[in-house]
Amino acid sequence: MIPELGQFSLILAFCLSLLLGALPLAGAATGNALWMSLGRPLSAGLFVFLGLCLLILGHAFVTDDFSVRVVAAQSNSLLPMQYKFTALWGGHEGSFLLWTFMLAGWILAVSLFSADMPREFTARVLGVLGLLCASYILFMLATSNPFDRMTPVPPADGADLNSALQDIGFILHPPTLYMGYVGFSVVFAFAIAALLSGRLDAAWARWSRPWANVSWAILTIGIALGSWWAYYELGWGGWWAWDPVENPPLITWLFGAALIHSLAVSEKRGVFKSWTVLLAILAFGGSLLGTFITRSGLLTSVHAFASDPSRGVFILAILGVFVGGALLLFALRAPLIKSGFGFGSLSREVFLLANNIILAVAAASVFLGTLFPMFYQAITGDLISIGPPYFNVIFVPLMILLIVLLGIGPVSRWKKTSGAYLWRQLGKLAVASALIGVALPLIVLLDVSIPATIAVALAAWIVLTIGRDLRAKTANKPSRWRGLRSLGYGYFGMQGAHFGVAVMLVGVAMTSWFSSETSVLLRPGETVALGGYDFRFAGAERIAGPNYNADRATVMVTRNGAEVAELQPELRVYLASGAPSTEMAIDPSLLRDLFVTPGEIRENGAWTMTVYVKPFVRWIWLGAIFMALGATVASADRRYRKLATAKPRDKARDETRDETGQASGLGGLRPAAGGEA
Amino acid sequence: MMKPHRRKRLGIILFIATGLSVAAGLTLYALSQNINMFYSPSQVANGEVGADTMFRIGGMVKDGSVDQRADSLAVSFVTTDFVHEVPIEYEGILPDLFREGQGIVAEGRLDTAGVFQASRVLAKHDENYMSPEVKAALERAGASPESHRFGESAEY
User: Fold this and answer.
1) Region A518-528: what's the mean pLDDT?
2) How far apart are CA B102 and CA B151, in angstroms?
3) I need a labelling partner for A453 at 20 to 30 A (CA). Which of A61, A73, A476, A532 fits?
4) Beta-carbon contacts below 8 Å between A and B
């Protein structure tokens, strides 16, 4: 009976989302204040009923109601409680419900935090999001109903959650990723609302910025969690595989990063507005593309859900209607968008333009590499795959260029910067970075390594230019502390995120070039040496877990005779499904991870295992945390907060002050204060 | 004469266009260098693959064909699409779900003896899920993937 209530509440949510997609939009078009004002209560209702769906389905999982098909397929009575609830998103139907719920959450957030926006604008944003939500719910009702029952006889027990998913990473990664992904729908809706009203102005860009920042920050964490999870769970010693399902979040992330920067220019300088709108559409398209690829089964991937072609067609239709419709609207309205062209060929605008081009080219090449096999198969009928070297060849030079410019951009000035000024500001730092890049690897490794030199030089370049800029910005203030306080969250957010790029760069470069690994066959008591460490296989024992049995090996790691770590990898067999699962053992630290992946047990008690030493691998995720924190901090900038709570009178004053550039808190993006003094 | 701001605009547009075409050219070149074709055992047995080409092969692991050396990580097995068979040699640790009778995809090259020297062996993490590549290989050979799909999982 309870699952039918879920079904009922899903249908109610569908009706509410249809109303949300129709009334506020119609109200905004005709000036009907009542219809527009319905946006907020409808958003709240949509959130409540989709939340109810999620709770009811969660209840079915927690109470082992195997008459519900998805529960029977993804859960089991032996499953530990935390995985019972989260098994909800272990399959296509439940995860799509979670995805739709996330959209409802964002819709609710927009309806709550939109007090400062004109009601026509809010109504249009909520209307567009309502239409999107309606299409998602329709998709569920038509092709993938999570509340389907197993009739007439339900199974006695469930088939169990895939053993690879029984992990903390599975609890955290999908909700975070979805939340970030879906957040870009909000920025998309803002862009469509602005196109519909024909008012693409600085206010639109300012309203969009916090949403873009927060979505991007959450997406960053979601991707990083996925990378971290894959790193320790799949036991392959890597952190990124260029898998067809990893790539769409990355495409969205790259477009999102470009969008954040181009929104800054649109707000501050009133240029690049058409381009910003296009980026908002593309970032949103990337998120739908991800859904399409995961759920259509068209591409080979570890993430693919067991597939059904009708779902792929449906999602493609959603993608076509929303992205196609948006592009059509864009094409109709773009000629009306007036962007000035008041900047010199060397200015902050140009550096941000270069940033946007590089990020967009990177996103486009990932897109090409991801979908090329599909196009190729459609045309020739042959199956191909694109190897990771393709992505590396494209990405490495683009990112090097991006990071070089990253150092220059924040120091340069709006409108016009002279080359001589930039050289005075940065010349010494460039030389210093190059020297550090040569010297540091030489001292540590006692060897010349071109990749290490490039990576260290670039990281030093980022850190030095940030330091230089901080000093310059606080130099004219009475005290350094007061100078720092005057800079504002926007500035610190930007520099924090840029610092994260440096941290991630070090992690990526060191892990890629200096990792070592070896696969061995070890009998108890035998030792293998790798990267200065000795790994001794001490022995193995049988253990029983809550819903699995396992063989656990003990590997003692020593360095120059001193004990460093004891690693205990396991080979598990899950009781319900009989599925085997390998559990890696990792000794993490800031400077290196020691990592053992068990393979199999031979008859004589010997184990095959792969042993890894991975320097600086944690820095990759640490860098992502810095980037996400930076974007979040920037979105909390005074300018947005004040606007959200300001009374109309104050708001007007704020805006006039803003135009003179005096009150702007986004220090990094304001006309460089105290620069050439 | 062009007005100065027009000239500047043209300059920037030309700069972007040049940059983009260089990027596009390099991307396409990189793409063409990194395409791994996928072949079924029948195609390999029919000699459709040139020597020393990196490619992927997919099929089922033939029952009773897995031969694991006792003292090393070397392993050999036979992959089949139930029409033709191709022997595979690999040195390393096989994935969790590598089982006789299950679908796998291997990446590597053919040696002169016609043995596929794999540098990577992939098996899916979900035993109900068959990779589209393996499915296609079986369909091409005329065997129904469905009939081989669930029969083996009963072993567990």
Assistant:
1) 93
2) 10
3) A532
4) 111
Interface pTM (ipTM) of the complex?
0.78
Predicted local confidence at residue A389, as pLDDT: 86
Q: Does A605 touch chain B (CB under 8 A)?
A: no
| Chain B partners within 8 Å of A372 (Cβ) | 31
Instruction: Report the residue of B125, B134, B149, B152 to disrupt the A interface, i.e. the one with the largest count of A CBs within 10 Å.
Output: B125
A378 touches B at CB < 8 Å: no
| Confidence at residue B142, expressed as pLDDT on a 0 to 100 scale | 62
Q: Measure the CA–CA gap between A463 and A403, rounded to whole angstroms.
A: 11
List residues of chain B with CB under 8 Å from any CB of chain A.
5, 8-9, 11-12, 16, 19-20, 23, 26-27, 30-31, 33-38, 56, 68, 70-73, 91-94, 96-97, 105, 124-129, 131-133, 136, 156
Alpha helices in A63-113 (DSSP H): 69-74, 81-86, 92-112
pLDDT score of B135 more than 80: no
Residue A416 scores a pLDDT above 90: no
Q: What is the mean pLDDT of chain A?
A: 87
Kindly report the pTM of this predicted structure: 0.89
CA distance A243 to chain B (A): 13
State the Cα–Cα distance between residues A342 and A349, nearest whole angstrom: 10
Least confident of A58-67, A605-614, A645-654, B47-56: A645-654
Secondary structure (3-state) at A168? helix
Q: What is the pLDDT of residue B153?
A: 28
Query: Alpha helices of chain B — where are they, by DSSP H?
Result: 4-33, 41-45, 132-140, 145-149
Selected residue with higher pLDDT from B36 and B150: B36
Q: Are A473 and A617 in contact (CB under 8 A)?
A: no
Q: Is residue A617 pLDDT above 90, yes or no?
A: yes
What are the sequence ranges of the domains in chain A? Answer: 1-166, 418-514+621-669, 517-616
* pLDDT-derived band at A492, boundaries 50, 70, 90: very high
**Which residues of chain A neighbour B33 with C-beta distances below 8 Å?**
389-390, 393
| Strand partners for A535 | A528, A557
CA pair distance B94, B118, nearest whole angstrom: 11
Q: Contact A249/A255 with Cβ under 8 angstroms?
A: no
Q: Which residue out of B29, B31, B49, B134 would a mutagenesis test of the A interface target, given it has the greatest number of A Cβ atoms within 10 Å?
A: B31
| Distance of alpha carbon A569 from alpha carbon A602, whole angstroms | 16
Other residues' Cβ atoms within 10 Å of the Cβ of residue B55: 22
* Residue-level pLDDT at A202: 86
pLDDT of A18-30, one tens digit each? 999 999 999 999 9
Looking at the partner chain, which of A345, A369, A608 has a beta carbon nearest the beta carbon of B73? A608
Number of Cα atoms under 13 Å in the Cβ half of residue A523: 5
* In contact, A506 and A456? CB cutoff 8 Å: yes
Point out which residues pair with B87 in neighbouring strands. B78
The answer, yes or no, to whether residue A608 has pLDDT greater than 70, is yes
Q: Do B35 and A345 touch (CB under 8 A)?
A: no
